[in-house]
Design a protein that fits this description.
The complex is a heterodimer of chains A (about 450) and B (about 230). By secondary structure, chain A is an alpha/beta fold. Chain A is about 50% helix and about 5% strand. In chain A, helix 23 links the parallel strand 8 and strand 9. Chain B has about 230 residues and is mostly helical. Chain B has one domain: Transmembrane di-heme cytochromes, Chain C (Fumarate Reductase Cytochrome B subunit), CATH 1.20.950.20. Chain B is about 80% helix and about 0% strand. Chain B starts with a helix and ends with a helix. In chain B, about 25% of the residues are buried. The chains are: A alpha/beta (about 450), B mainly alpha (about 230).
């Protein structure tokens, strides 16, 4: 089912081969990764999937070899000679190979833990993204993921929310906030303000507690902020599909909204990859160094406010033992590790650190878009991707959480929350999973 | 006679040409493609700190110490003693007589010290290389990613190390003709060609290995500086 039903034409296979060979024109890092891997196996030792997957498919170096073989068959003299006598696997990509690619490269969550430990500095997530971009160009991206990207193209967000609907959502949440706090907390939308706040559109719908916590925080801190119906969703599936053009277009929305609303700061909410795209890949890199607004995270903002005692937080409102999960895109790809902890410690009294943590933390198992995959598509040797996430890619995270003995896992990333929440349910753990700003929302004390 | 002439005179020309052309070609490809920036946090604060970190990591293999302890011992010993052996080999060409005199050693004594250190290094290298090969064959996760290239690389290294050890340990090995020949070769003046069988085997495999470097994974030697600077660039 799923991918097998798409018949691949020879032209598409040739396109894939040409795309790999084109690595000889760049980027430099990909060329190097093709050339210098010494096959030491350390990446597999430190990969959460490789450690939990009984099959060999989840070995990062082996996955990268799928590209290497094609690349090398056309490059080195020695390899050409050996290939011609059949002693080295060469190119000759088949449709079946590409279907295996789709499963291989969607079993990698792009967490970059392998890059931390590779003695040669090879970042297999870059290879994963390259392979995924090739798959995308011939229509082999898992359907669930490509559908979300299509929704982005049409509506500007992955949930298909039109601007009037966005305004309705904001109104609805204002009502909920009044009920919760007895204070008229606003959820402004499409207004000129100091701060434009953009977060995961999916989370606004499925887990509004986070946005409500952010709104309460903004109100208590006296920050002039707004949402945008045009840039309602910071998530950027172009990162996951390897589609650079889409990644830029989605980021353009955030830029245009920031310019039109004349904001001083573009603040990204609790979404790991959104923050990474907004700061590391997009932003000044796409739109020029002289953009008039600063791009930052709600955590950086909140930590600063908390340090200056700009809000009153009662941490006794969150008495349970809380542990913190570092989203890979926060810890390894943007360096955001301390501010979320500052904010969390300020609103939860009993904070437990998991081990390892920060830039060495384990991936939740659902990064790189894997969190939205549930069905039979894209998975090796198991009935469903959901089962794969629950029993294989999420195994390390489950062990880690068990070890902390915490009652609540704060995961500031919608996909991580979805994965860890499902893990707890599947494995019948009595552990709650939520966002940091939900806890902030519970701890906020409104003066007067 | 002709074999010796081939290995000692003709082959070195080919070896140097292939190695230089190969390395230049490889480095040019990398340089041409443009630097990347894919920061892996936490990144060093300044370029100076970045290069310092890369240097320290390259010398200590610190990441393996954390991430793959058993491999770290074997491969660090291997690389460390390989480096020592390569430095020691420069004595073939330069002789370093003045240096030894200033350090207070007389010629013969320096030679014996070199023999002791070199001999030890040769044995450690042998053990380490055998460990690496065994590991590749016995560990499932490593075996599944290994291809012919990986086995050829370690086999070549073993051939060089074993022939070198045989030279050192089998019978008395007179270094004098060797010391006469190599500085001559480097200066493009051919003197009497050495005929020791183990030396010729050693020279042959060493040259094959040198030629193999730019076209194989052994090119990770300069490559690692490119990859790490992409990850650690601030």
């Amino acid at each position: 089912m799923g991918l097998q039903s798409k018949m691949l034409q020879q032209a598409e296979l040739d396109k894939a081969i040409e795309a790999v060979k084109a690595i000889r024109n760049g980027p430099m890092v990909l060329q190097l990764y093709m050339d210098i891997c010494t096959k030491c196996g350390t990446c597999a030792r430190q990969c959460h999937v490789s450690q939990s997957d009984p099959d060999c498919y989840a070995n990062p170096a082996m996955r990268s070899d799928r590209l290497r073989r094609i690349y090398n068959a056309e490059r080195s003299v020695l390899k050409k000679v050996l290939w011609s006598v059949g002693l080295v696997n060469g190119n000759g990509l088949t449709a079946r190979d590409l279907q295996a690619w789709a499963k291989d490269f969607y079993s990698c969550s792009g967490c970059r833990r392998c890059a931390k430990f590779c003695p040669l500095g090879i970042d297999n997530s870059v290879i994963t993204r390259k392979a995924r971009s090739i798959l995308h160009s011939i229509g082999l991206t898992p359907r669930k993921i490509s559908k979300i990207q299509q929704s982005d193209d049409r509506f500007g967000n992955g949930e298909g929310i039109s601007p009037p609907t966005a305004v309705e959502i904001a109104d609805f949440l204002e009502g909920e906030l009044v009920e919760q706090y007895g204070v008229a907390i606003k959820v402004p939308i499409d207004r000129k303000a100091d701060v434009l706040f953009v977060t995961s559109g999916g989370e606004i719908l499925s887990y509004p507690e986070t946005l409500m916590g952010c709104a309460a925080f903004f109100h208590a801190a006296g920050i002039d902020w707004t949402l945008s119906s045009y840039a309602f969703d910071a998530a950027n599936f172009g990162l996951f599909t390897g589609d650079d053009a889409h990644m830029k277009e989605k980021n353009r929305r955030l830029h245009e909204a920031s310019m039109n609303l004349g904001v001083e700061k573009l603040v990204i909410g609790e979404c790991g990859h959104a923050y990474r795209v907004a700061t590391q890949i997009g932003g000044a890199n796409y739109w020029g160094k002289d953009i008039p607004y600063q791009i930052t995270s709600i955590f950086v903002l909140a930590a600063e406010v908390i340090r200056k005692k700009g809000v009153k937080l009662d941490s006794s409102q969150n008495p349970m033992a809380v542990t913190y999960h570092d989203p890979c895109n926060y810890a390894r790809s943007t360096g955001l590790t301390e501010e979320p902890r500052e904010v969390l410690r300020a609103c939860a009294g009993n904070f437990l650190e998991m081990t390892p943590n920060r830039d060495y933390n384990w991936c939740c198992g659902a990064g790189g878009g894997l969190a939205v995959l549930d069905g039979g598509e894209g998975v090796h040797g198991m009935d469903s991707f959901h089962k794969y996430r629950m029993t294989c890619t999420g195994k390390k995270k489950l062990e880690q959480i068990d070890q902390t003995g915490a009652a609540y896992v704060a995961a500031p990333c919608f996909n991580c929350k979805r994965q860890i929440g499902q893990l707890m349910e599947y494995h019948r753990r009595e552990v709650a999973v939520g966002s940091v700003f939900e806890l902030v929302g519970k701890a906020i004390v409104f003066r007067g | 006679m002709y074999v010796a002439k081939f290995i000692c005179i003709l082959m070195p020309c080919v070896t140097v040409a292939v190695f230089v052309a190969g390395m230049v070609g490889r480095l040019r490809n990398w340089n041409r493609a443009g630097a990347a920036r894919i920061p892996l946090f936490p990144t060093p604060a300044t370029p100076w700190q970045m290069w310092k970190r890369i240097l320290v990591e390259s010398l200590t293999f610190g990441q393996l110490c954390d991430g793959n302890r058993s491999l770290w011992i074997g491969t660090w010993a291997f690389h460390l003693f390989l480096f020592m052996v390569l430095i020691g080999h420069t004595m073939l060409i330069t002789d370093l007589n003045t240096l030894w005199k200033n350090l207070g050693f007389e010629y013969g004594r320096a030679d014996r010290i070199g023999a002791a250190i070199g001999g030890t290094a040769g044995l450690v290298l042998l053990v380490a290389a055998i460990y690496l090969l065994t590991r590749r064959l016995s560990s499932a996760r490593v075996r599944e990613i290994s291809s012919l290239e990986d086995y050829v690389s370690i086999a070549l290294i073993l051939a060089v190390v074993i022939s070198g050890d045989l030279m050192r340990f089998s019978s008395y090995f007179d270094t004098a003709p060797v010391r006469e020949f190599f500085p001559g070769l480097v200066g493009l003046q051919i003197t009497a060609i050495p005929h020791n069988r183990f030396l010729l085997i050693h020279l042959f495999f060493a040259q094959v290995l040198i030629m193999y470097v730019p076209f194989s994974k052994l090119v990770h030697i300069p490559g690692v500086f490119y990859t790490k600077s992409a990850l650690y660039r601030c």
